[in-house]
Design brief:
The complex is a heterodimer of chains A (334) and B (273).
Chain A lengths: L1 H7 L1 H14 L5 H19 L12 H20 L4 H24 L11 H10 L1 H35 L1 H14 L8 H7 L3 H26 L3 H8 L5 H39 L4 H10 L3 H29 L5 H4 L1
Helix pairs in contact in A: 1-2, 3-4, 3-5, 4-5, 4-6, 6-14, 7-8, 7-10, 7-12, 7-13, 8-10, 9-10, 10-12, 12-13, 12-14, 13-14
Chain B lengths: L3 E10 L6 E11 L4 E5 L6 H9 L6 E6 L2 E2 L7 E4 L11 H12 L5 H14 L15 H15 L3 E5 L7 H17 L5 E6 L2 H7 L2 E6 L4 E7 L8 H6 L1 H33 L1
Parallel strand pairs in B: 3-8, 3-9, 6-7, 7-8
Antiparallel strand pairs in B: 1-2, 1-4, 4-5, 9-10
Helix pairs in contact in B: 2-3, 2-4, 3-4, 4-5
The chains are: A mainly alpha (334), B alpha/beta (273).
Chain lengths: 334, 273
């Protein structure tokens, strides 16, 4: 029956041959080693029992994660040849770390089982605390993104205008330089008193924290624009608002992005600290709360989840940046 | 009335204590439809002069007139091509030309601007590259794009600051021919002010050549180029008149440099001892 479908539909058969072609993965020794390592880890996890102090009734989530890593790795190698070496290195290191964790802690019980839970124990938490973590993640990201985008929307236009006007720049830049290094969390106690809810206080603090790096990055970018480029734009007789939007902004965009990257990282830190101090939900709160009850398996589970979500957000951010600045390195591709 | 008029221009840079004149006593009338080259050794202020006409800078003294009107700043009545950096790197070739058209001809609709941009990109042979970013184009293609943009904007006056200075000789020949071809096919020819330090380029392209002296920049001599158009490079370069004009120009050109060169040579000799 499949054959019939293929004959009737050349597109489908093309797609299938395409997939078959893609399946011919180029496997070097290092790639084989990485796959072997992950498979070994899976087998050890399934067939070798944990020491009693680390044992959990259900190890399947950890094993699921290993399988997922394997699938992602092989798919990643198959789907594109880009950064072939980088992918392998990352997965190899990840595999070695997980293997060491599983074997040394889980199977040999080397360290204190209370402070250093085995991976099976940690990953089992996700099945148990799924709902709390999910809500924590949602509430954390709602606060983070609101504060961050607010900062973007306010800081970029403001900085464009200020960077463009020499007189405003001369006043604003020293102020920005003096104020920007203040850790944004110092505003938290005051913000909590002034603002009605913890969320609004956190949004405010993240706004402040993200504002300065974006502002300084943008002003810096505008101020250091290539004068020749500005002259060329001036000869077109552009009105000032067109000049700012269509020339100054795109020309300063690389600098805007470097500020925005720092701002995003700073926002993560600020939010986590704020949640640890004062929140009743969110990932930072979860970690801090579980720490108070000495549930270190949950603390580590929360840390891993947080790390993973940061990686995902940064990946998207990177994509956006690459898209917006595609003109910059366009020369390398052709 | 002259198309471009420069009256008693003095340009000086620096702070009050240490001002030095870059340009002095510049008086020049450029007639409508003339192709005029500014030629002189580097440091003679020819690019500064072009910036003044473009409106990017204001002269310390004197007036710059376009069609009898004193200029107040840059405007779409004057198109400028620089040696590089005329284009916006974040816009594709087509976007660069469209953007310039849309802001110099606000009455044109988007579709008309687009059609016009595509036409001029075709004229300079870039129709296959309209969606490329400038960084992916070669130096010659970038200058073709800049020229297409200037022609598409259709200003009355073209200001060109060593537009082919960074190109290899083959590309330069191609660009010179392209420019002459585009310029001379117009019924009412544009007025061109063209900065170069290449004597052959100046003779090949211009109706008049303005020779400048360095520090401070002054106009030393204005030389007419009598050769009829269209000029064929091959015939021109082998004609007796051309050789005479060329050596005359080179002599003017180098008089001021002689001192400089001999001084530098002496310095070198001193160093090597």
């Amino acid at each position: 029956m499949n054959v019939n479908v293929n004959e009737k539909n050349p597109d489908a058969s093309n797609a299938i041959t395409g997939i078959i072609r893609m399946l011919k993965v180029r496997l070097g020794p290092l790639q084989a080693l990485t796959i072997g390592l992950l498979v070994a880890l899976l087998l050890i996890s399934v067939f070798v029992p944990d020491v009693p102090s680390q044992a959990v009734p259900d190890n399947s989530l950890f094993q699921g994660v290993i399988v997922a890593l394997l699938v992602i790795f092989v798919l990643g190698l198959m789907l594109s040849e880009d950064s072939y070496q980088k992918k392998t290195d990352i997965f190899l290191i990840l595999g070695i770390m997980l293997l060491a964790w599983e074997v040394l802690i889980g199977k040999f019980g080397l360290l204190d089982p209370f402070l250093f839970p085995a991976p099976g124990k940690v990953f089992a938490i996700y099945a148990k605390d799924y709902a709390v973590m999910y809500h924590g993640l949602i509430s954390s990201f709602a606060i983070l993104l609101t504060g961050y985008f607010l900062a973007l929307v306010v800081a970029v236009p403001l900085a464009l205008v200020i960077g463009w006007r020499k007189r405003a720049f001369d006043v604003a830049y020293p102020i920005a330089k003096a104020v920007s290094p203040i850790p944004p969390t110092v505003y938290l106690p005051y913000a909590i008193v002034l603002l009605p809810t913890f969320s609004s206080a956190s949004v405010f603090v993240i706004f402040i924290g993200a504002f300065w790096p974006i502002f300084v990055g943008t002003v810096h970018g505008v101020f250091n624009l290539d004068q020749r480029l500005i002259n060329s734009a001036k000869t077109l007789g552009l009105k000032e608002h067109v000049m700012l939007r269509k020339v100054v902004l795109p020309a300063a965009l690389p600098s805007v992005f470097s500020g925005a990257t720092i701002a995003l990282i700073l926002s993560f830190i600020t939010l986590t600290v704020a949640e640890m101090i004062a929140a009743t939900s969110g990932l930072g709160w979860y970690i801090e709360y579980q720490h108070q009850y000495a549930n270190y398996d949950k603390v580590i589970a929360g840390m891993i989840l947080m790390g993973a979500s940061v990686v995902v957000v940064m990946w998207f951010f990177d994509r956006i940046q690459k898209h917006c600045l595609r003109w910059q390195n366009a020369g390398d591709n052709s | 009335m002259a198309r471009i008029g420069l009256e008693n221009i003095i340009m000086s840079f620096g702070t009050n204590g240490k001002r030095s004149n870059v340009l002095e006593d510049i008086n020049l009338q450029v007639n409508d439809g003339d192709f005029v080259s500014l030629i002189g050794p580097s440091g003679c202020g020819k690019s500064t002069l072009l910036d003044l006409v473009a409106g990017l800078n204001k002269p310390t003294h004197g007036r710059i007139l376009i069609d009898g009107q004193e200029i107040l700043g840059p405007g779409p009545d004057r198109g400028v091509v620089f040696q590089d950096y005329s284009l916006f790197p974040w816009m594709s070739a087509l976007e660069n030309v469209c953007f310039a058209i849309e802001h110099s001809h606000e009455k044109l609709s988007k579709a008309e601007a687009l059609a016009r941009a595509i036409r001029y990109l075709e004229v300079v042979g870039l129709s296959k590259f309209i969606h490329k970013y400038p960084s992916t184009l070669s130096g010659g293609m970038r200058q073709r794009l800049a020229i297409a943009r200037m022609f598409a904007m259709d200003p009355g006056v073209f200001l060109m600051d060593e537009p082919f200075g960074a190109l290899d000789s083959l590309n330069r020949v191609f660009m010179q021919d392209l420019l002459t071809h585009l310029w001379s096919r117009d019924e009412d020819r544009k007025t061109v002010l063209f900065v170069t330090h290449d004597v052959d380029e100046a003779i090949l392209l211009s109706d008049k050549i303005v020779v400048m002296t360095p520090t401070p920049g002054r106009i030393k001599e204005i030389i007419d180029v009598p050769f009829p158009r269209p000029r064929k490079r091959h015939n021109l370069f082998s004609s007796q008149d051309y050789v005479i004009l060329r050596s005359k120009l080179l002599a003017r050109f180098s008089e001021d440099m002689q001192d400089d060169i001999s001084r530098q040579e002496n310095e070198l000799i001193t160093w090597s001892i």
